[in-house]
Amino acid sequence: MLQSITLLGSASGRNAGDAALLAAIMDSIDEACAEKLLYEIPSLNPNFIRENYSNRVRPIGVMPWHASLRLLGVPTLRSLLRTDMSLIFDATLFDRALFNPMFNFLSSYAVLLPIAKKRGKLMGCFTSTIGPVRTPRGRDMLRRVLELMDFITIRDVGDLRAMREAGVTNPNVVLTNDAALLTHACSVQRAQQIRQSLGLNANQEVLALNVNRYFNSWSGGQRNPMTHEEFVNTYVAGLEEGLKEVDAQLLFVSTQHMDETLTREIMEKVNLPQHKALLSNREYGHAEICGVLSGVSLLSAMRLHCLLLASVSAVPVIGINYLPKVRTYMETLEILEYSLDFDDFSAESVAEHLRRGWRDRPKLRALMQERIPRMQEQVRLAPAIVAALHRGESISPIIDKHRAKYPD
């Protein structure tokens, strides 16, 4: 039986999406196993782990004075060898800055995980994103890491494509969805309290907006990179044109600490009469953000996990694709026409994107209410696999049953 698991991913507390993922993973596994396991979590901010989760957690410090460069170091290796299983989560299997362990985790996995595997440790990918991987070295490293896994559950068809391109032949690969869809929101009363503190009128609709400072780094489009000023001016002009006739309060949502400055700048520059408020993960936890988003009429977002935190409650969403994973999520929802690529990023396209989303929000809500429960059901395969291993059972019957019900 499993007693302990090491969770490998981004766990600094700076990103509400990562924080939600951690909670959803631990809660869903404990529920499936019908007991609380111990989770060791390498983190730059051990206090965040210790203070924000009700699960049995043991934070592992990974700063240089712990003899570690993020995950690459003695503390993580000791954790891998001490626990019964290791799970890779979130979007850490990419090859950008491949040999910089302060930014890239794939190279750290390639060093550490084979050592744990030789000791007979179980390991898997828990609803992970695969890629982007664009270099021969990156593809080779990805292949070697994924062949070590006892199981691989992934979020979308884009992950399958990335694995095939890397030559991964692991037989226990299953398409599920994002574990953040299992996030528990805060209480209705707490969400109402936060809305009141933000000055939001309960009798008027709310349109939520989310941006990401990585508007150039990852999109892989054909257009020339934008400057910070160009992005802000274009987005603000699009908001002012697209929302001038929208009767809704504007809620600006920052789910990553590094995005808040950009979010505040845009919020202050927008010249619109609607009430404006800021919901930031510097002040509120992931469950609180999830709860507040459950009451909005539409969310336009760049960050994937902002989209997911709204999707938990089947809120209508439209996306701006700064990364392939955002586009593939919208594709999975079968609403790709409500996403905007950066190749087509202009004040006019942003305005039309918002107008269309707002006009079609009843249609989008109906689609979300139909599709999100099915996607949440798919996610539950990942904790079910862990529970089977916990009981010492074969995972093949569970995987085969899932594949029969949800063909790739």
How does the helix and strand content classify structurally? alpha/beta
Tally of DSSP helical segments:
16
Name of the CATH class of the largest domain: Alpha Beta
Number of strands: 15
Report the CATH architecture of the largest domain: 3-Layer(aba) Sandwich
| Total count of domains | 2
Rounded to the nearest angstrom, the radius of gyration is 21 Å
N-end to C-end Cα span = 31 Å
Strand content: 15-25%
Find the CATH topology of the largest domain: Rossmann fold
- Overall 3D form: globular
- Largest sheet, described in full? 7 strands, parallel
The residue fraction in helices comes out at: 40-55%
Q: Can you say what the CATH homologous superfamily of the largest domain is?
A: Glycogen Phosphorylase B
Overall average pLDDT: 96
Are there runs of 5+ residues with pLDDT below 50, and where? none
The strand line-up of the biggest sheet is 3-2-1-6-7-8-9
Question: What does this protein look like?
Answer:
This protein folds into two domains: about 5-175, Rossmann fold (3-Layer(aba) Sandwich); about 190-375, Glycogen Phosphorylase B (Rossmann fold, 3-Layer(aba) Sandwich), CATH 3.40.50.2000. The chain is globular. The protein is built from 16 helices and 15 strands. With about 400 residues, it is α/β, with parallel strands linked by helices. It has a seven-stranded parallel β-sheet with strand order 3-2-1-6-7-8-9, sandwiched between helices. The chain has a six-stranded parallel β-sheet with strand order 12-11-10-13-14-15, sandwiched between helices. The mean pLDDT is about 95. The protein has helices spanning about 15-35, 45-50, 75-80, 105-120, 135-145, 155-165, 190-195, 230-240, 260-270, 285-295, 305-310, 325-330, 345-360, 360-380, 380-390, 395-405; strands spanning about 5-10, 40-45, 55-60, 70, 70-75, 85-90, 120-130, 150-155, 175, 205-210, 250-255, 275-280, 300, 315-320, 340. α5 (about 135-145) links the parallel β7 and β8 (about 150-155). The two termini are about 30 Å apart. Helix content is about 45%, strand content about 15%.
